[in-house]
Amino acid sequence: MPELAAAPLSVSSLVLRSRQLEIDAVRHLASRAALVDVVGQLIEGLQRERGASGVYLASKGQRFADLRGRVVQEVVALEGQLRAEFALHVEPAQGATAKALSLMAWALLGLDSLPALRSQIDKQAMTAHASIAAFSHLIAGLIELVFHVADAAGLPSVSRQLVALVHLVQAQEEAGQERAMGALLFASGQGSEAHQQRVLHLIDAQERSLGAFAEFADPALRARWEQLQLAPGTAQLERLRRTLGVARPGAALDSNQSDTWFEVCTQRITALWQLQVDLVQRLREDCAALIVQAQQDLQDSTGLLRGLRDNP
After folding, report:
1. Residues 6 or more apart from 222 whose CB is under 8 A from it?
2. 46 vs 173, 177, 259, 310, CA distance in Å?
3. pTM here?
4. Is the Cα dihedral 135, 141, 145, 147 positive or negative?
């Protein structure tokens, strides 16, 4: 049986296919921006649960029991949203990479382990430090997913926004770990050289991440961050940081300061979170504008090629 002849290749078919692929690429990026949005919300919730759980354990159940209960309910709802988002990205049309799907599977394993972790915390059957490490391990996997999604975008027109987003997500996690470790120290009522050094390391890491964010963020977001650093809570946080930094190992710390520390750290993290929300929103708006432009280019290309065929 003779083979069917392949359709002849033409300039118009190549140009139009190129335009269609551009539209697909932007749509995939818009879908990934939606995924990053939901992942970011869950990370922020897990960071709060990590901090509240650390204080609850370090204070032997005397502090943050109610707060922890409320945060757990919020995080469970966010887990459901992320699972639904993952289900969408399994579809071939979404263009998810093999690594992205593997990272999603890894994240689901972590989420599936949360009920057992929470049960251990309820029974105070683990240390505050072990609790912080367990939450941080799960959050690290979610952040790696954000990094991969940003790296796989492949659109130079939004690359600076994506680089800024990656560093902002990293800074927020470092601030979240600082909140958890500092709260653990204050709630325990005494200094610990290892934990104090960890806090100092996290402060330095935040400065590096935020410096990179400022370098790549657009001027409006950069100006907002600079203004936020002048807020009264920033000076209070610096005083509490010094208190932790100069305390001798084993020296008494005022456990009542754990609430204040948690509050001022939360103000800082909330400010970073709002910057992240706005950055993702701008990214999604830019994707929508790029789709409109690409569709217009497709129509223009179609008209131009038709004219060339009719009037060679």
Report:
1. 214
2. 10, 11, 18, 61
3. 0.83
4. positive
